[in-house]
Amino acid sequence: MTLNDFKLEFFILYDKVANFAAPGYLDDEVSIFLTKAQERIILSLYSEDGNKYKEGFEETEKRRKQLQQLVVPNVTLSLSANQTGAEGFAYDLPSDCLLIIKEKAKISGCACCNNEYKRIKPITHDEIESNRVNPFKKPSEKLLWRLDIGSSRHDIIPKEGTTVTEYTISYIKKPRPIILDNSVIDGFTGPLDCELNNIIHRQIIDEAVKIATGITDPQLYQIKTIEKQSSE
User: Fold this and answer.
1) pLDDT tens digits for 182-200?
2) What angle do CA 193, 197, 198 make, to 5 degrees?
3) I need a labelling partner for 218 at 20 to 30 A (CA). Which of 33, 48, 62, 167 fits?
4) Hey, is 198 helix, strand or coil?
């Protein structure tokens, strides 16, 4: 779908659900709606189905195609120069990292390491504090903990006495904005096409119209669309 298609379909749908007092929008404003809608759709695809470890988004062909342009596989990170506040070993995430879909690490310092990748369990600060004196709830030779430090660093916590030697992630990158004109969004200058697969484009437009009209109820959005179609 071209940028002209995005613009045309946005305004067609917007006219169907907006009332006569609704504001008219310029291209730069529509670009913001589309960009925000794109991110919302990605987050919803990643988190739906109650998937605790966020690996099920690849279970269907449709889901793979929807997000395949954004998947960055098997990136081995370098140890962060900033280890302040780390319980274990801190690593800086890539600047374009939006969501982690898989992570693994190697450790040294124990007889059973064997240079194998170990599983990683995300954990909260509260869980660390509540388990700090519990000898049965600690990182092990087979399972490491991962603590988020702010929004851009991961703290990988191995078994006491061992060292993290490699931390590798696969992630969904932040999509570039959808920009209809020559305006600037998030440091990108337009015009810029949507980089996602065509099968998700109309879903983005639907979400952008909801944002523009302030409609948060999906059922109300469908009713307004149907009512407008019936009156034409």
Assistant:
1) 999 999 999 999 999 898 9
2) 80
3) 62
4) helix
Name the amino acid, one letter, at 100: I
Torsion of CA 72, 74, 79, 84, to 10 degrees: 60
pTM, two decimals, is 0.77
Q: How far is CA 104 from CA 89, 140, 167, in A?
A: 14, 14, 6
Give residue-wise pLDDT tens across range 32-71.
999 999 999 988 876 654 444 344 555 566 666 778 889 9
In DSSP notation, 111-154 reads TT-TT--BEEEE--HHHHHHHTT-TTSS--SSEEEEEEETTTEE
What does the DSSP 8-state code read for residue 171? E
Measured over the CA atoms of residue 29, residue 69, residue 80 and residue 149, the dihedral's sign is positive
Helix axes 218-231, 3-17, angle to 10 degrees: 90
